[in-house]
Amino acid sequence: MQLTIENLNLSFGDQPVLHDVSLHLEQGQIGCLLGSSGCGKTTLLRAVAGFEQPDSGLIVAGGLPLNATGRIVAPHLRNIGMVFQDYSLFPHMPVAANVQFGLRDMNRAQRSTRAAEVLEMVGLADYGKRYPHELSGGQQQRIALARALAPNPGLLLLDEPFSNLDAELRERLSTEVRDILKSCDTTALLVTHDQYEAFAMADEIGVMEGGEIRQWSSAYEIYHKPETRFVANFIGDSTWLHGTIRADGRIDSELGILPKPRDGSFVTGQGVEVLLRPDDLQHDDASALQMAVQKKAFRGADILYTLELPGGETTKSLVPSHHNHRINEAIGIRLEMDHVIAFPA
Amino acid sequence: MVFASWRLVSPENWQHLRSWVLPELFINTGWLIVGVALLTTLLGTSLGWLTAVCRFPGRRLFSWALLLPMAMPAYVLAFVYIGLLDFSGPLQTSLREIGISSLMPPIRSRGGVIIVLSLALYPYVYLVARQAFLSQGTRAIEVAQSLGMSRRQAFYKVSLPLAAPWILGGLLLVLLETLADFGAVATFNYNTFTTAIYKSWFDLREPNTALQLASVLLGIALLLMLLEQLTRRRMRFSLTHSNRYSIDLKRGRALAAFSWCALILALGFVIPAIQLLSWIFSDALADLDSRYWGFALRSASLAGITALLLASLALLLRYCRRLAPNQISRSAEWLSRLGYALPGTVLAIGVAVPLARFSNTLQSWGIPVMLNAGIGALLLAYGIRFFAVAINPVDKAMLNVTPSMDEAARSLGAGFWRVLGRIHLPMISGGLFTAMALVFVDVMKEMPITLLVRPFGWDTLAVRVFEMTSEGEWERAALPALAIVITGLLPVFLLVRRTEK
User: Fold this and answer.
1) Are residues A34 and A144 in the same domain?
2) Quick check: B399 contacting A, CB < 8 Å?
């Protein structure tokens, strides 16, 4: 099922929550809404599910408009599944009955076959007779997924599905869930505040702030080609370097001459801020460019050094962990910037 | 309604009340409240702390058995102890035979009423105090100890203050019950507002006096209710669950703890229960006749109907609030909770007087109705008094059904009726059952409303107990009392099952 949202606006009373939101997902794609709490991402998800009514704009799923005036499709008729943050398993039913709850058009035998199928898929084939409170958090999460997938929804919505789990389980489950969704070829839209979860799962990521989607593109693009300063700061580690546009379009900075910025029209002599990612600054003992180590954070495979720029400001560099340097020691740095991202100062 | 009676006050009448009746009532009620408050706090807090925090032989047994006195209405406890300890009772008689009668203080005294009411009501404090001590766990004590306090200091500076709002909440319930109590004080011939209202209504036939007294009592009850709401607000700070904290009691201390718990359990439940049984088997088995079954049937049918009505009403109100949460349904609910603060006598008069006037008016128009003595009036009064009892468990059960469960069911293709039938009803049926059980038992036990509002000849078990005790026939009151106590055990077991989980 394709999902298209066009110019959606939604408010609670006189409080605007979503402003002019548009996005598109192809059949089988996994999209992710990423943002801090209160940015409207969960509201957007609930509007797609039909639990909130938009003021204006259009939601189209599988070619069917869901909120056309006078023909609003009720939530239970949308063929859209949802996995809730608290899982919301029905506590009075065993797992099998929970999973079968959405399978109304089938006879008893078909229902139990389908339930066994999806339980197998989430790796909990033997748990049908258990009750939800007997399961661990990770297992409940998988049952919630199985329950939502059982009726074979055209679109699956997941609201912060892993936020109640510990870090290790979260990472394992997010790749598992991605594999399951891909194997069923289910279109999915997920909400999270954890960018690594978004990176691990999503084909398309929408960074949200203040009820608007600031950028809708792939994880790679979001990280390396942010379209706004907000997105650049929100995603990953970012530091900024002052510079001035030269006559040939390249940038003069205290780290030397940088290539022409990827986007944006700048005039000669204009001051800019250049985005530096820790992986843009490579450690190279032979480099003439030397910076003093101000702080270091050991991360196992690598060390994140905070370095002092000649002008006194700081930047960060990610260095393989066997290059162990002391605080205040000067180390050689080589810039490796495939694409320069600059915004007007 | 009750306050409206002031319009009808004749000054001389009020003058008489103020100078002759009210001082005695205020002094008696004041002593009663202070005494019961002190004694129930002492009993409830000490027993709650012992069974929650200390380890000693019998702790597991006591932790639930100490709730058993809840099944014993105060008026039953009252007549059992008077029968047992009065001048003609078995204890005094045998003491006189060995010549040491003067050592025994009279049971029919202020102290006697206070002790009996406290024995019947301390479980309210015990229950909340125990819960508070249990759930505060080790963390708070450990923090205090790490800051240099001894265990004893930590108890007074941290544990007790943390539990205080809960204890106070339980205590206020106790005081509301004390104010409302009619049966026990009547058995003791101890004059309070409730007995005075009863007398002026029934014996003296002065409805206006009754109304005025009721309004004074109502004022005191509302004041307490207000206090209760205030403490509830203070209970916001949370008690986090962490490891259970426990103190091992050794030899002497363990023995002392055991004896204290055993003493209260014996006084509050075991001795009275044995006395009831012995009276029944020695004197009153003959009363087990068709008349008795009539009392029981009337009690049970009144209780059953009220339970059914209130549970449905609670469900309906909850549902309205869920579907359309607004100010009106919320304040309607708050008002309905107020009903629990109304002493039964006040409520009875508040319902009976306007209905009597209304039916008089109708009769003066030539319409022959007898609303004042109708079953409807009785049910109405029960309903107002016990609605809060019904709505609490329904409320708690509804809380388990989170809004996202509704949404989960909807997103799985379920319509309104399927959500109702498959999700809501199965999940709240337990709460509904609890609500009905609690209301059932409360109505069975209820005495003053039934006495004042019941239609002529419509005697229930509680009315029978009252009639027999007011004639001093303790033995013959035992049989109906036992039936009430046995039904009363039901909510105690419900409670035990929930707290032991």
Assistant:
1) yes
2) no
Shortest alpha-carbon distance between residue B403 and chain A (Å):
9
Is B94 an 8 Å CB contact of chain A? no
> Within 13 Å of residue B78, how many CA atoms lie on the same side as its CB?
28
Would you call B501 an interface residue with chain A, using a CB distance cutoff of 8 Å? no
In angstroms, the CA A170 to CA A105 distance is 34
**Residue in the block written with tokens 């049910």:** B379
Question: Given a cut of 80, is residue B107 above it in pLDDT?
Answer: no
Per cent of chain A over pLDDT 70 is: 100
Task: Tell me, yes or no, whether A215 and A247 share the same domain.
Answer: no
Q: Read off the pLDDT of residues B282-322 as tens digits, 9 standing for 90 and up.
A: 876 777 777 888 888 888 888 999 999 998 888 888 777 77
Q: Which residue of A has its CA nearest to B403?
A: A88
CA distance linking residue B224 with residue B228, whole number of Å: 6
Residue B493 confidence (pLDDT): 84
Of the listed ranges A261-265, B214-218, B354-358, B377-381, the least confidently predicted one is B354-358
Q: Is B416's Cβ below 8 Å from some Cβ in A?
A: no
- Last residue of one domain, picked from the residues A193, A217, A233: A233
C-alpha B40/C-alpha B122 separation (Å) is 5
Which residue, A178, A204, A233, sits at the end of a domain? A233
Does position A213 have pLDDT exceeding 70, yes or no?
Answer: yes
Residues of B in contact with A151 (CB under 8 A): 412-413
- Region B345-350: mean pLDDT is 80
Q: What is the 8-class DSSP label of residue B156?
A: I
On whether any CB of chain A is under 8 Å from the CB of B413, the answer is yes
- pLDDT for B390-436, tens place per residue? 887 887 788 778 888 888 888 888 888 888 888 888 888 888 888 88
Residue B200 CA to residue B87 CA, distance in Å, equals 30
CB contact under 8 A, B409 and A101: yes
User: CB-based contact (8 Å) between B226 and chain A?
Assistant: no
Question: B404 at the A interface (CB within 8 A)?
Answer: yes
Q: What is the pTM of this model?
A: 0.72
Q: What is the pLDDT of residue A26?
A: 95
Look at B404 and A101 and tell me if their CB atoms are within 8 Å.
no
Does residue B243 belong to the interface with chain A, where contact is any CB pair within 8 Å?
no
Look at residues B450, B323, B326, B327 and name the one whose alpha carbon lies nearest to residue B386: B450
pLDDT of residue B46: 93
Contact call for residues B90 and B283 (beta carbons, < 8 A): no
* Rounded-to-integer distance, Cα B94 and Cα B88, Å: 10
Residue of A nearest to B430 (CA): A92
A113 and A222 belong to one structural domain = yes
Query: To which H or E segment does residue B205 belong?
Result: none
Shared domain for A226 and A289, answered yes or no, is no
Using CA atoms, how far apart are residues B500 and B223, in angstroms rounded to an integer?
34
Q: Show the domains of chain B with their CATH numbers.
A: 13-282 (1.10.3720.10), 288-501 (1.10.3720.10)
A140 and A289 fall within a common domain: no
Do A259 and A176 belong to one domain? Answer: no
Which residues form the domain of A331? 237-344
Lowest mean pLDDT among A185-199, A276-290, B96-110, B345-359: B96-110
**CB pair distance less than 8 Å for A91 and B427:** yes
Looking at residue A315, which CATH number applies to its domain?
2.40.50.140
CA distance A253 to chain B (A): 53
- A189 forms bridges with which residues in the sheet? A31, A157
Residues whose CB is less than 8 angstroms from the CB of residue A146 and which lie 6 or more positions away in sequence, other chains included: A99, A115, A118, A119, A121, A122, A124
One domain for residues A209 and A244: no
State the Cα–Cα distance between residues B193 and B218, nearest whole angstrom.
10
User: Which residues in chain A have their CB less than 8 angstroms from residue B423's CB?
Assistant: 90
Residues A224 and A257 in one domain: no
